[in-house]
Syntaxin-binding protein 5-like
Amino acid sequence: MKKFTFKGVLDGFRSSAPQPPRVDQEIVETLRPDHFTVAKTFRHGFPFQPTAVAFDPIQHLLALGTKSGSLRLLGRPGVDSHMQHETDAAVIQIQFLTNEGALVTATSDDSIHLWNFRQKKPEVVHSLKFQREKITYIHLPLQSKWLYVGTDKGNIHVVNIENFQLSGYVINWNKTIDPTRKTHPGAIVHLSDNPADSSKLLIGFNCGQLVLWDLRSRCAEIRWQATEGLLSVAWHHEGKQFVCSHSDGSLSTWQARQQSAKPFSISTPHAKPNKDGKLDPCKPIQKVEWKSLRTTGEAYLIFSGGLPHDTAGRAPSITVIHGKTTTVLEMEHNVVDFITLCESPWVSDFQDPYAIVVLLQNDLVVIDLLTPGFPCFENPYPMDIHESPVTCCTYFADCPSDLIPAFYSVGSRTQKRTGFSEREWPVDGGEWSPTSCSYNEIIITGHADGSVKFWDASAGTLQVLYKMKTAKVFEKPRTKSTECSGMDDDPFAIQLISLCPESRKLCIAGASSHIILFKFRKQEATNETWKLEIPVNYEHLEEGGEYSPDYEYPPRQTIKTEVASEAKEVGPLRVRTGLQKKPPGFQAYLVCISIGLHGEPSSQITALCINSSYRLVAYGTECSIVVVDTEQRVCVLNMMTPDLYGSADPYQRVPRSPKRLNETSNEDRCRSPTSDQASLEEVDAKEDQQQEKSRRHSVPWRKKKFSFRKMRLSNVKAPNKEMLNFEEAPNAPTPTPEQPSPAEPASFEEAFEAVEEALLRESPTEEVPEADSASPVAPPRTKRKQRPQTLTLENNQPEILTRKVSSPALNMKVRDLRRVEEDASSWDAVGRVMKKLNKLDSSFSRSRSSSMSSLENISNESVQCLAFVDSYTRKSDSSPCPTLWVGTSLGSVLTVMITQPVSVEARLTTPVVLQPCGTIFRLKGTILTMSFLDCNGALIPYSFETWKDEKQEASKERSRWKVLQNYIEARPSISPTAMASTSAAEQFGDRQFAVLVSEKHARVVALPSQNCVYRQQLAETNFVVKSEIISLRDSICLVCYLSSGQLSAYTLPSLRPLIYMDFLPLADLSFQTSKQGIQGIVDPMLSIWGQQMFVNEDTDQIARTFCFSNRGHGLYLCSPTEMQKFTVSAEFCQSLNEMVGEMFLTREMPEPPKESFFRGLFGGGSRPLDREELFGESSGKASRSVAKHIPGPTLEGMNQRATSASSEVSRAHQMMVERGEKLGVLEERAERMRNEAESFSTSAHQLMLKYKDKKWYQL
């Protein structure tokens, strides 16, 4: 018989009750930590602050060094490698080991490094750091392993590049100069071999001293002294003469075989005689090169600088003297360095120059010497990213396949570049084959001049597709205006970009508080541009200002929608009027300009979102949110951020008020339809003027004596009665803050204080026990006492103020998702208690002031994140509806319901209605991103309208609206994945997940129940700079970039940590901020929180150029001129090596020039030099204090592996010896045993023979 127990009975009850399935049991998350690897992939753009250039004439590779220690190797398009020295010391000189797959760099920290680029990822092999002297010049003769190193003290050291060991051969400065010289000659500025005799080394000092040093005899053979400072030297290929460039803009030619006090010739190419008959002073000639042609024997004399000082507006130049022709090639930027490309690498032969590579401060120019006129080659590299400073970036990985061909087709027609050389690009080293990529990548960059560039970033390359200029939409400003805050000298600077790839609608936000909506067309069009003026509701009150309590709050706003030709322009930007001819591509359709009252500066745009299906554009500013209907070209919502809360605003705000309006009546101006505003009653003009007059002459009062909510309630229209009645009328209309209020009694302040005290007495709070960290956080449910129907105001005023407040906004519910401890608060008395409990924590924002007083009064709340989605706004919703989700800088997430006409015809005429809902979520820190998942954890795709050609669309207008009609009717569906599992969703009750991410936390909220099912703290002492929900390996995850320089990733929806890796210090991106350097962008007063943090404006700018995209790709602006791509996908890292081009190819070295019989007979030919005999072991050992050898990571690893292998071999050998010894002992024992066995056998045999013939009885 079965025995019944109390535990069994309880288990039976539990099993009989239906248990709702857990979310983590239904959703299978496939991402694991081994799927992630953080790696930098490709770098594109022009090297920032270049300092040096070098060229390998056999491999046809170009090397560029920068001030930050960066090194770029360039070959044919697709062959591009980036290297970085361990230190950030500037690269001062680069020398290739010609046709050997290696190069040597000299850096400003007095070190030389040997790089090996025979493999796809170049690495440092050796390093040598000089400890007593500074390196000023290095020289490596062709096919030599001995490197000459000149220093600032005038000494020359010799380094063996095979092992980076110093030779004992040293050329000291006191042995080179004339014994009669009494001063130090200065630093070495030039070292070179005589082309005709490699045993002769030409040494140049910056004081103008020139010495021809005999390496064999170790003495100075010839000395020359120039009258001006020496900058560079170039040999003639015969070795008989050399030319020098000087600091006074002159060129001097010297004979190499005779010592003379004066040069053979002196010329100042660009000097002109003045009135006194003297030559005008000229700028220094920084570098000169002397090359010869084999066919004609004529020489090319090429130099940079040397122009007259008094030439106003003259640009930097490169001068080419060929025969009797002098050509001056002006450059757009300062010349850093140049190098002449020649067919022959031998200095003793005719070089046959064919191009000049000019490294400018902001560009790379290659000049064709073989084409008349010396045109430039068209640069195949994306070196013009910084043509105008990049202000924002957008990255689309796995975009629609037809987008790139469409952009390329319009870009090729509108941007035809002419005037370039027809010859092929000369830097064609390496090998790269385009890999077939299964998806396309597009990068969109916004620039300070208002231009927008579209780049094809597929398969590791970067190619410009299309460029458009938004400044063409506006008239040219007559004078520079600084009326718009933050625009400075760039009123058209692009701040935000929002593109719908499927509908090809583009929206940009500019620095002048304007947005432009573009539509893509393949054909040219001629039409007008619509303009919408949107005024700012109100501005901040200044400290110490005096304002009237009867002042209208907020003022009546006026929004005008006009064609640009009919509009009265207001503000610094003026839209072009009349019909405009627009080229193919993105064509401006609608311009929205935010206008400050009375010319006051308007707020900057902080968030932007476009939805082609809803035909709406939403953008947020520093204090408001605006939604524009692009179909009807009207503003459907223009609301300040505090108004989104209704009466449940949890923050104590610094009051705001507009500037006083003009005395002229604005009756003829119409307002746009806004759902948050009730229609105003018609009032006569005389009454309006009387009220305005009374407002201007009312008793002044200071803003410190009233709160934001008091000011809002003071404008609610109500009759004068003896009681103040708080009744909740669910069907009552929402009170409009724009309705005029009657005159208030003098004791207005005391009346509200009495009301507040009475409300607090009647609404006590209960302590809520601390909930489990795994359970969702919900607002506390406290039992509220029934409010009395009437409250008598106890004061001495003659009249008793009564207000009837009946608004649905009073029923707003706030979910505080920051932490569990913060939920112990009641929302009675319109959120007063919540403000007192969470005053410090609720105001967390990086944009706050450093003073503690700013934490108590919130003066500004900007909109930082916007998202259109079909979602749920209430718990009772059975199907999703169009909504707009708004994230603010104070961590609030609010929803706005969108009501659209169902019929297609009504959509053209009936206004779209937007209504703020009662759902409010709160997190800690600024809201960064919001995304939505279906019940299976799949990302809900945003709704869009498919793009169609405008020409075809006009002929099929009805079919287009039919598609929209079908979409509106089918909108309640969530997603195909969610529809497949409707039954499971209905059982659980929740059908969506909202992923809310702030600077500190991430929360997953189930909808429509609004329960927080998962939470994760993303940062403790730091904050999140950029976050995004991306797709990876057929799943989704949350990736974040932290201010501490780490990258982190979390699964969705459970927010389980996947990776936390060091990536990039935030200080490396400080060049984008308004104040350069780490010290400039950190507010020291923020240390009151125990840490130092970046100011909000600085990290916002960094976040605009830091992008995450699908498939684990990412992008950031690593310098003002370069973009760096990275990935977090381990799968992509495995295939990365196949996408990188080969740098080094095996090529034969050309034969050296042959000497003629007579030249060799009379000793005119070059003489071979055995450098190994001079600089090898016979020269002795160098002092250890001169330089320190630092092995590279590769060599060090090889040494470690070799040492480990050697120890293993030694150990095996020792064990083998020991085993041999043991085997020897064993062999001896076996031999002894064998001998003993044989002796025993003999004895036994003898004994057997002895007793063989005997009987038993004879024994």
Q: What stands out?
A: The CA atoms of residues 442 and 577 lie 33 Å apart.
